């Protein structure tokens, strides 16, 4: 990835290993601001490029740990402040910093930001962005796909293993005050040697395949574009042109595909009926990839064995949703990229892209309209 000179000046390029408590901890250390930067900060945030954020704290804000680093480069303007003073603040905003899907970028907002150059969005998904609309305003778009691929693949395998071996149920059994004996018939599904079907063989899907190979799994995949032969051979993956074949062959089905109009509702009642009754569905993509009513029915009737979901629609689910009551379901709160290291890398990548855009340099991780 190319890094702009401006970014190199502002950020130390290497993580440093520090010893502590018997473990090595990766630490990202911002370089001390230059004399010029210090003068800018002394003059006030208004002398830095204006960047619109949803909020600085709370459930819909940026990571609070990142705020001080961001303020070294930008004048952070919250959505509330902007809405209260559009006339003054609108022309100051040159970038929108999207974290956890917020703030939403609408046509009305774009009309209110005459100086906007870039929308920088954390994560790999783009379903919350209208790329054509932004292109019509001459606004660039960047995201952070490389930062999220490894931790999301890690979580995908964690969910697969937890569902296969009934880890959550086992924990509840082990800690229950009513448990007097462990049942001898408490069984799960074996992962070693099983067939994993990966739907969506992008960077996340491919890293899942790399991890699955270490478990000696047989790997089949379905993707809109077939991978190169050497990439398939490196992980022992077989391409399935027909999704139906993958569903029928797989012991585990992993959804790692982007949400688009073509993939919304990809797994419905028909597709669930094609799966083995012992199969486990894992979704680390987007909730709308799956017809949740059909999934509930499939889990209740034994059409499939179990499901492990990091994503649902909506998020969070209503507290009376049937998925919350089923023992053969594992749910996590959309935490695919939720590691300290990944979230910091996401922030750094967004900063790089914004600074490059404002400097007229090539934008790392620019999303191009196809």
From TrEMBL:
Q: Which family does it belong to?
A: Belongs to the D-isomer specific 2-hydroxyacid dehydrogenase family.
Q: Which gene encodes it?
A: LOC104999534
Q: What name goes with this protein?
A: Glyoxylate reductase/hydroxypyruvate reductase
Cellular component per GO? cytosol
* Source organism per UniProt: Bison bison bison (North American plains bison)
User: Could you tell me the keywords of this UniProt record?
Assistant: Oxidoreductase
Q: Which residues form the D-isomer specific 2-hydroxyacid dehydrogenase NAD-binding domain?
A: 157-336
State which residue ranges cross the membrane: none
The segment(s) forming the D-isomer specific 2-hydroxyacid dehydrogenase catalytic domain are: 63-367
**Gene Ontology molecular function:** glyoxylate reductase (NADPH) activity; hydroxypyruvate reductase [NAD(P)H] activity; NAD binding
């Amino acid at each position: 990835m190319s890094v702009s000179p401006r970014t190199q000046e502002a950020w130390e390029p290497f993580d440093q290993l520090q010893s502590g408590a018997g473990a090595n901890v990766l630490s990202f250390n911002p370089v001390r601001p230059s004399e010029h930067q210090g003068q800018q900060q002394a003059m006030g945030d208004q002398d830095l490029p204006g960047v619109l954020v949803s909020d600085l704290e709370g459930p819909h804000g940026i990571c609070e740990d990142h705020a001080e680093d961001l303020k070294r480069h930008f004048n952070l303007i919250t959505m509330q402040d902007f809405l209260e003073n559009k006339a003054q603040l609108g022309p100051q905003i040159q970038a929108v910093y999207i974290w956890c899907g917020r703030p939403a970028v609408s046509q009305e907002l774009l009309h209110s930001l005459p100086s906007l150059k870039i929308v920088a969005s954390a994560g790999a998904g783009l379903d919350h962005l209208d790329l054509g609309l932004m292109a019509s305003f001459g606004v660039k778009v960047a995201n952070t796909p490389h930062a999220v691929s490894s931790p999301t693949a890690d979580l995908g395998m964690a969910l697969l293993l937890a569902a296969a071996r009934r880890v959550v149920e086992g924990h509840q059994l082990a800690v229950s005050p009513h448990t007097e004996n462990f049942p001898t018939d408490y069984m799960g599904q074996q992962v070693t040697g099983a067939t994993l079907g990966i739907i969506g063989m992008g960077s996340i899907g491919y890293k899942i395949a790399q991890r699955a190979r270490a478990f000696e799994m047989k790997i089949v995949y379905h993707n809109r574009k077939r991978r190169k032969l050497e990439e398939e051979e490196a992980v022992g993956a077989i391409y399935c042109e027909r999704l139906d074949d993958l569903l029928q062959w797989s012991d585990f089905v992993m959804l790692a595909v982007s949400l688009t109009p073509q993939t919304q509702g990809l797994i419905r009642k028909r597709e669930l009926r094609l799966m083995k009754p012992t199969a486990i569905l894992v979704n680390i993509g987007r909730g709308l990839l799956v017809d949740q009513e059909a999934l509930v029915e499939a889990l209740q009737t034994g059409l499939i064995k179990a499901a492990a979901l990091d994503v649902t629609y909506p998020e969070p689910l209503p507290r009376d949703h049937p998925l919350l009551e089923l023992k053969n379901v594992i749910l996590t709160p959309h935490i695919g990229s939720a590691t300290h290291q990944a979230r910091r890398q996401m922030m750094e990548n967004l900063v790089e892209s914004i600074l490059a855009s404002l400097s007229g340099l090539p934008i790392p991780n620019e999303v191009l309209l196809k």
